[in-house]
Design goal:
By secondary structure, the protein is mainly alpha-helical. The chain has helices at about 5-15, 15-40, 45-50, 55-65, 70-80. The chain has five helices and no strands. The model has no long low-confidence stretch (mean pLDDT about 90).
C-alpha cells in the first residue's frame, strides 16, 4: 500500500461520508477510464467514435470524463461500436 492509499484509507476510517462519496465517485471515474482506454485501443479518436455513434465529439468527451449518469443503452452502443461487450456485476 502506497502513501496515497494509506491516506485515503485513514480518511475513510475517520469520515464515513467521505468513504461513501469517494467509493461512488471512484467507480464513476473508473468507468470513464475504461471507456477511454477501449476507444484508444480500438484506434479511434473521440470524433471517429462520435461519427459511428451518430453523435458529437463533445458527447463522447462527456461520457469519458463525466460518466456518472451514463445510460445503459448508451454504454451498450459505445461498447458495441468498439467490438466489445458489457459485463455488469452486482456485488
Amino acid at each position: 500500500m502506497d502513501d496515497l492509499q494509506r491516506a485515503i484509507a485513514k480518511r475513510k476510517r475517520l469520515d464515513p461520508e467521505f468513504a461513501n462519496t469517494f467509493d461512488k465517485e471512484y467507480q464513476e471515474f473508473k468507468i470513464g477510464v475504461v471507456l477511454k482506454e477501449a476507444r484508444k485501443n480500438a484506434g479511434l479518436t473521440q470524433e471517429a467514435l462520435a461519427d459511428k455513434l451518430n453523435t458529437k465529439k463533445s458527447a463522447i468527451s462527456r461520457i469519458e470524463n463525466h460518466s456518472e449518469d451514463i445510460r445503459l443503452s448508451t454504454l451498450h452502443h459505445y461498447a458495441e461500436v468498439l467490438g466489445k461487450k458489457i459485463h455488469i456485476s452486482i456485488l
